[in-house]
Design a protein that fits this description.
382 residues, DNA polymerase, domain 1, hpI Integrase, Chain A, 3 domains, four-stranded antiparallel β-sheet, 14 helices
């Protein structure tokens, strides 16, 4: 049995002893019980006297400075469940759903049992590395984003001193190649949707760049035919159990002034809707005043719109085209038509012009080259 040793800390603020099992223990007074006045004694342990003395000195300094906080007994699982319930108040429904998915499907199974105060960068790095074989770099980045935010809140509340995710390395995200329709494909697409039940919403989307939930959620109060404008201020999102109104992706409403061609499409849709309403009679139901509906007034569903779109592009021999690529197409043709970056950014509802430039760098590079050639031609003609 190891010989028991006991020493008093240099400042008299704690004692250090070697336990019978060979480990070293430092004891200190963290404060006093407010009810009884008795000292609140705590212990820390280590494999060497030097190790526990160093920890004890750090603790006593923080006590003297009034900065000491007892290490949290919460596990990572305990804390994330508190965080998602009490501290995430303004997330959009789909974002909240995504956060819960990352926490319950990935973070808690891997790290949930670890004490919050013991969670170290190497625990998290090992977790990220284990995801590499199953998930894309973007998915891992999203998981990291949720864990980082949750632990940042724990730092703000004093449960942990630093955020261990800060020291972790993430796999490089390879930028997804966008696939907009080019000037040869656009007329083929427009010809393919002629007479289709969703011809008008597809055409409008192609020439406004609205997100799918924005297009589905357009209501007649958004349209000002006199001014020739569309006010985009909300979206209609599909959630488990039904649909729900939500604010826009970046929380920024926008007023767009599309081509007259688009406004004519909306006028035609208004006439068609009035005819459908008369035919449906008492069966008509459109309390939200949606622009694009089925013959009975019900809004168009996301999966219905996407499935029909996919059938059309497959028939065209372009199965890789996605519904979202119509938004990219609008951005590209706007830039090629001479619209400035700021205008395109505002029409698309991006959070910054820099993001728009980065997303469509290949187009802006070509525009810069064309600008250079025009300037060169001008100089030569002087």
């Amino acid at each position: 049995m190891a010989k028991k040793k006991e020493t008093r800390n240099a400042h008299g603020s704690g004692t250090i002893r070697q336990r019978p099992d060979g480990r070293w223990e430092a004891r200190y007074v963290a404060g006093h019980d407010p009810g009884t006045g008795k000292p609140d004694r705590k212990s820390i342990y280590g494999s060497t006297q030097q190790e526990v003395r160093k920890q004890l000195n750090a603790i006593t300094v923080s006590i003297d400075n009034g900065e000491y906080k007892e290490p949290s007994k919460l596990t990572v699982k305990d804390w994330l469940e508190i965080w998602i319930k009490d501290y995430i108040l303004n997330l959009k429904p789909l974002t909240l759903k995504s956060y819960n998915t990352q926490i319950n499907n990935h973070i808690i199974p891997a790290l949930g049992k670890v004490k919050l105060c013991k969670l170290a960068p190497h625990h998290i790095q090992k977790f990220y590395n284990g995801l590499n074989d199953k998930y894309s770099a973007k998915t891992i980045k999203n998981i990291h984003g949720v864990l980082h935010k949750g632990l940042k809140q724990a730092v703000d509340l004093g449960y942990i001193k630093t955020n261990p995710t800060e020291a972790c390395k993430l796999p490089k995200v390879v930028k997804t190649q966008i696939t907009p329709m080019d000037k040869d494909i656009i007329p083929v697409f427009l010809e393919a949707i002629k007479g289709h039940q969703f011809e008008k919403i597809y055409t409008m989307d192609l020439f406004t760049g609205l997100r799918q939930s924005e297009a589905i959620g357009l209501t007649w109060d958004c349209v000002d035919f006199d001014a020739g404008t569309i006010f985009v201020y909300r979206q209609y999102q599909k959630l488990k159990g039904g649909y729900q109104w939500a604010t826009l992706k970046n929380g920024k409403t926008r007023l767009i002034k599309p081509a007259n061609f688009v406004m004519d499409i909306l006028k035609a849709e208004k006439i068609k809707q009035a005819e459908n309403r008369l035919r449906a009679g008492s069966a008509w139901e459109n309390p939200e005043n949606f622009i694009f509906t089925n013959p009975l007034g019900t809004h168009i569903k996301h999966e219905t719109l996407s499935k029909n779109y996919k059938k059309i592009v497959v028939m065209m021999g372009l199965p890789d085209l996605r519904f979202h690529d119509m938004r990219h197409t609008f951005a590209v043709i706007s830039l090629q038509a001479g619209d400035d970056i700021k205008t395109v950014q505002e029409n698309l509802g991006h959070h910054s012009a820099a993001f728009t430039m980065d997303t469509y760098a290949h187009v802006t590079d070509a525009m810069r080259k064309a600008s250079s050639e025009r300037m060169d031609s001008f100089i030569k003609n002087l």
